[in-house]
Amino acid sequence: MRVTGMFDVKLTPQSNDDVGDGIPLGRMSLDKRYHGDLDATGKGEMLTAMTSVKGSAGYVAMERVSGALQGRNGSFVIQHGGTMTRGAQSLSITVVPDSGRGELAGIAGKMAIVIADGKHSYDFEYTLS
Fold it and tell me: Per-residue pLDDT tens for 105-114?
């Protein structure tokens, strides 16, 4: 099955004094509101690394998504992993196996995020067993 829609996101920087060898590590809390067939909130934590080369960075995040997916209520966790190499992006967002709860128990899937004109949208392909 596949659902698409928009979402709002708020990233809040958290304290982290680790600048190490000039490549600062950042930490942010993540608050999302999904709209459409995925009517849910997302709460999570993100870790980032920014290099001195413009457009090169990496991030990882864990996000709990709670709400309704095509009328089924429950929650699941998604794992983010992304890199940018001089502006070229690679992103993987996957449902953590066996993380589904409620009517979303048994969910598996992958999500894509599109950012265009400052607006965020999702494309979520999933299965329920």
Answer: 999 999 999 9
Q: Three-state secondary structure along the chain? A: CEEEEEEEEEEEEECCCCCCCCCCEEEEEEEEEECCCEEEEEEEEEEEEECCCCCCEEEEEEEEEEEEECCEEEEEEEEEEEEEECCEEEEEEEECCCCCEECCCCEEEEEEEEEECCEEEEEEEEEEC
In the predicted structure, residue 115 carries a pLDDT above the cut 80 = yes
Contact assessment for residue 1 and residue 70, using Cβ atoms and an 8 Å cutoff: yes
Residue 63: domain span? 2-128
Q: What is the CATH number of the domain that holds 58?
A: 2.40.350.10
pTM over 0.90: yes
C-beta neighbour count of 122 within 10 angstroms = 21
The pLDDT assigned to 21 comes to: 77
Q: Report the domain count for the chain.
A: 1
Give the pLDDT confidence score for residue 16 in this predicted structure.
72
